[in-house]
Here is the input.
Amino acid sequence: MKMIGIQLMMIACLVGCSSCEKEELSYMEGDFKVEIVSGDHWLHDFPLFLGISKKNAPQFAIWMEDTEGNYLTTVFVTNKIATEGWQANGGNRRKEALPHWCHQRGVIYEDGLLLPTKDHPFTDGISGATPKEDLTVQLRLDDLNEPIVIKAEFNHSLDFNDFFPENAGEGEDNYSGGKMGSGQPALVYAGTLYPDNEELELVLVGRSSSDGSDGKIYTDLEKISTAKDIIERIIVSIQ
Here is the structure.
């Protein structure tokens, strides 16, 4: 399959981020706009100490593949994933955070895992802090003569529910990293963008491995609860 020429534009708009003002994006004809509309569970209570908690936004990645499932490039990944920027993780590298993206990308690091490290952070795409609300990403493709698949994977830390509890034991079907792990596994959204598309909405296609041991997409979503409400929708449009 012919490789698609891809040039990425830097993120220019973080809506609702407390450390920045909303900026207007300047688009050229043919630019792509990826809009993530946050859902009711975008912010999740993350316990700190003595009953105090903070509102955490999810970790996620947006990337492109060809129609045969070959990884092309990452459009955006959150900074904690890109730099191993976890706090109070007790040495847990969080391999259960975004396992589908990690396995599709296929980069193995010094400890044998597929997650970027502090010493070798993710450098071949755009990364940034997770905004408190919606996110808009601008990108530019040099050439779109063939369809491409756009995927996004989302995950919260400590997002436990009745089926994915923090006390699940390693090796059990519902183990998700233990006390400082994910809880509910990451969810994967995808859609195929064709040259004549003007707009595409990504749809939920499944969940990732709960313990991060593989990069498969599992379609059993019956045990997923609030994680389905992390996002409301993801829209990709050609400007």
Remarks:
- Confidence is low (pLDDT under 50) at residues 1-28.
- The radius of gyration is 17 Å.
